[in-house]
Amino acid sequence: MSVVPDEKAAVATTGVRAEALHFALRNGKLLAGLTVLVVLLVLGLFGPMVAAADPNAYVGPQFAPPSGEHWFGTTIFGQDIFTQFIHGLRATFLVGLLGGGIAAVIGMAIGFTAGYRGGIVDEILNMLTNIVLVLPALAVLLVINAYLGIRSIPVQAVFIGLTSWPWVARAIRAQTFSLRSREFVDLARLSGVRPWRIMTREIAPNMSSYLFMAFILLFGGSVLIGASLDFIGLGPTDSISLGLMLNNAARYNALHLGMWWWFIPPGLGITAVVGSLYVMNVGLDEVFNPKLREM
Amino acid sequence: MLRLDRVSKTFRTGSFGGRELHAVREVGFEVAQGEVVSLIGESGSGKTTLGRMILRLAAVSEGSITLDGVDIARQKDYYRSVQGVFQDPFSSYNPIFKADRVLEMIRQRFFPSMGAADWRARVESSLAAVRLDPGGVLGKYPHQLSGGQLQRLLIARALLLDIRMLVADEIISMLDASTRIDVLNLLGELKGRGLGILFITHDLSLGNYVSEKTVVLRSGRVVEMGRTELVFGNPLHPYTRNLLGSVPRLHRRWSEEEDAPEEEATCFYHGAAGRDATWPGLVEAEPGHFVGCATSGTCAPALELVR
């Protein structure tokens, strides 16, 4: 490592990122997780353009195991499972990203603000968090559905996002509280750093792998909540998701009929998406935390 | 230079700030240029809170802190003149960034237009002032450096600015004996450069070693303060006597300590200032030596006032 003295100054800010990238590109866990995720994402994004437009169309023979014509076989009604899978993958990513994303943004904003400001701001935000936490999401959903109806997957994702953030807010608030009292935060204040930058540059980087994990949990949670909502008939009726496929398979006794090709692809799909995110998270921990890098 | 005038700090605790906790009560003293003032007190006496108020990390509830006669809350570039170093060197650094980032933050805020070469020279001169080798500390992570190095790097950080006042809050209590004396002597050098230093400690012998003035704090109140040799040589407050009595000294045997007279019913403060003197307050026992009321249950006027 030879750093020319005159370049030393620029290194401090860009150096952190360049260094993180350096370790990220050499981290097997991160790369493996990312590869699986990207493959599934590409399949979900571009697959539906190539495959048949309607995943619920009755296109083939009923009850057919995987073959050259129907890669993942057909359902008991003769729907093509591969078509359903790639459409479902897209819906699953949408629910996970949108629902998890909204919940993560709200939870982090409230958690950081409450934890850093403390005092009366904390009391009010904490009260709000607790109210949403004890709100029976299902009952609220029933009421909303009765008045408005949930017609599309994005609406479902937004609803999931708006109700699933409280635990993130509470967890981040607690972490921020403990980090805020560390002396390096005081030192940043003595260096004239503004509160927003202290939160984003001093406190948040210390829990970046935790924040990412919170997002992964929210992502997985949104996918599963979406699947359960579909199951009880509160989801969009005319579309498909991996959760809905699983629930259809369960409803029509695929397991008892030996139709493994009906439930394994969607189950494996959800597991692969959430699992690859988890593996990435472990990898990111090593990238972000210099102490874990050294052997 | 830096002056505290009847400074109090009240924390609101409990839900919606229902209860009050008086951490600091009506404290007043002054730190002049080239002077080390040691602030001595046990845990919970309010000494760290005082340091945080001087560093504007906590708001002053009542009273005022002024630097050259101007309230510190209204000073724009306050941190150019006043900086602090804290107790725990390992917690003073953000563990995921390199240690020299603390220097870089100073540059971003205070010297944004300074050229790289000038900055480098400035960093090197302030590292030299704390006897650190640039190659040994720059570009390292905090966990790769020792406590003494980290603490000296923090002092170097403060020296990058042309500070006039340093708040040193227990800065050597987590260092081992050999690095301790290095850092302590470093404070002596800084004093020689004209810096005012507030040396917060619970260790009497350290206070005696470095300071010109001593302020003894108990339960948020000043019980005794004045020139160090007067406070240490002729302690008038029972609390100070107790503190000093617990330090073994070379020229006295423990049996002689027993001969200390019984506490009188009226403390020195109320004896000198009159039974009706307001409380809390300080009375000048001799030039440059102030004492407060004993209030430990032995002072009759104080007990009456409480009633």
Automatic annotation (TrEMBL), chain A:
One Pfam family hit: BPD_transp_1
ABC transmembrane type-1 domain: residues covered: 89-281
Compartmental location: Cell membrane
Regions annotated as coiled coil: none
GO cellular component: plasma membrane
Family: Belongs to the binding-protein-dependent transport system permease family.
Record protein name field: Peptide/nickel transport system permease protein
Biological source species: Nonomuraea dietziae
Phylogenetic lineage: Bacteria, Bacillati, Actinomycetota, Actinomycetes, Streptosporangiales
